Amino acid sequence: MKPSRFIGREAEMSRLKGLLEKRSASLIVVRGRRRIGKSRLLVEFGKEMKSFFFSGNPPVRKTTAQTQRDNFALQLERAGIRGVKPDDWSNLFWRLSEKTKRGRVLIVLDEISGLGGKDPQFLGHLKTAWDMYFSKNPHLIIALCGSVSSWIEKNILSSTGFLGRITSDLVLDELPLEVCNAFWHPKEKRITPYEKFKLLSVTGGIPLYLEQIKPNLSAERNIQDLCFTKGGLLVREFDEIFSDLFSRTKARHKEIVLSLANGSKELIQICKELGKSMGGIFSKHLDELVKAGFVKRDFTWNLKSGKEQKLSRYRLSDNYLCFYLKYIAPHRSTIEKESFSTLITQLPGWESIMGLQFENLVVHNRKTLWKILGIAPEEIVMEGPFFQSPTIKRELWISR
Predict the structure, then answer these.
(1) CA 173/CA 385 separation, integer angstroms
(2) Are 165 and 185 part of one and the same domain?
């Protein structure tokens, strides 16, 4: 099957190509939300050189350190490196380094948390292999790629073992609206902005979701096929996201996003609603959702001084998760029975949820708005959703 046309990511591709001008090897991190296009970006970049792609197994219960090594050895064999015993990572990395010690080479270790999450020796062996073998080829690039940003930050970016070794930390965000427009090709000029908005309110700027758009169909029909038809990508995606990224703690992460489905909340509000204590493991799970790209923490600011305040709220920033929780989840059993027949425009609260989705699109595309309004980034003092505590609101009302 022919891959879809590669769209966008000019700035990210420029950063990657800048590595080719260096006179030394590069060890980089590429991370971002699931389906954001990390692997696809590296595939496109790798077309200019010899490339090796390896991926860790999903974090299911039966996955062990040995099964990860077995899988890696199998991928080495498929890449033409045969007869490697998967007894330890040092041997696996050494054999790979022998195949890549000359010329321009890209090595991608995808789902890095899967590769190393079960084996405390993995990262140590990788660091040693980098120092002793891989870094000796000045034209080699290793990309450590993954969706579990919290694991990457803790075990790689904040690790003393990799201190001074990471050349670049590339974080992929949603595609901006002007780039999303290209997914309606060749009819992007004939389809109204409102039709596009309805679909973007569900998909956000997530490349894989946008690739499912059929320009010949209406927004409602596209949404029906993706979200309200048995087997539709966005019907099953929610469960796959949480099983893939959070595995054993998925139920705890799910209850947090469900709490945020109706609007942003302060930490104390979330804890009270879920019956949790502040701090500890709960704050860790919330932070993991932030780093995974599904939740944003917004800080308010003082209108007079323009300075950031301590007051903050957590917001479900991912349009797909918002839409799933509001509309797909309540009808999931009906969808699975293939008996869902309601017109999506007749779903309760349809217009109000479109408003919340629009807010997320605006926040994600604020830099484009600055450009349209002729505002230079350095002129921005503070930006983001504005809110106040009830006490401040009451004080402002009294002062009038």
Answers:
(1) 18
(2) no
